[in-house]
Amino acid sequence: EVQLQQSGPEVGRPGSSVKISCKASGYTFTDYVMNWVKQSPGQGLEWIGWIDPEYGSTDYAEKFKKKATLTADTSSSTAYIQLSSLTSEDTATYFCAMKGFAYWGQGTLVTVSS
Amino acid sequence: DIQMTQSPASLSASLEEIVTITCQASQDIGNWLAWYQQKPGKSPQLLIHSATSLADGIPSRFSGSRSGTQYSLKISRLQVEDTGIYYCLQRYSNPYTFGAGTKLELK
Question: What is the mean predicted confidence (pLDDT) over A19-37?
Fold first, then answer.
């Protein structure tokens, strides 16, 4: 059974960074790219980008190129997203998703607050 | 960027009613279109992929269709558990874009 287990909620200070994890199980981690999606409170869904865990290659939406950094650790089958220079606009739930968005993590709430 | 114009924004329907939600793509996206249902506090669930293919485990009352650059999700006999927010997603080109969502409630 495919499972994507995300790390717990994070609180970040304005200007700081946070790093969220997404641990994959139930499939070969390097077989599928991992996508990341942002959902601001009460809002819709925005695609951030994907990482190919096998090669480390990435593709980002232009809007998130300076905000998000996607990495992956094949030894632990875990994908990461780091969000930098946090502002209130980054307060949101972040999801990982794979296999054409067929499987999703449960989401991680990031709150930016001083 | 490809814009996905989803309508209606909200919808109230009765049990067993037929419901249709549409997404209009701003340019050709082929069959790179999927539909999702999201319940409060949960992650989206895939309903339809490749515009018309039913995802595993999804009831057959859900169906997807395509006419040119207009895509539709149809629920043939609305059930209580079908309430939620529905989104379309195009994966044809970067950036992948979601529709704004349709909030479906029971009348």
Answer: 98
Q: Which residue of B has its CA nearest to A41?
A: B41
Q: What secondary structure letter does DSSP report for B96?
A: P
Q: How far is A70 from chain B (nearest CA, A)?
A: 16
Q: Return the half-sphere exposure (C-beta side, CA atoms, 13 A cut-off) of residue A77.
A: 15
Q: Inter-chain contact B43–A59, Cβ cutoff 8 Å?
A: no
Inspect the interface and report whether the beta carbons of A101 and B97 lie closer than 8 Å: no
pLDDT tens per residue across span A68-108: 999 999 999 999 999 999 999 999 999 999 999 999 999 99
Q: Give the pLDDT band of residue A64 (cuts 50, 70, 90).
A: very high
Cα(A66)–Cα(A63) distance, integer angstroms: 8
Cβ contacts below 8 Å, chain A against chain B, sum to 45
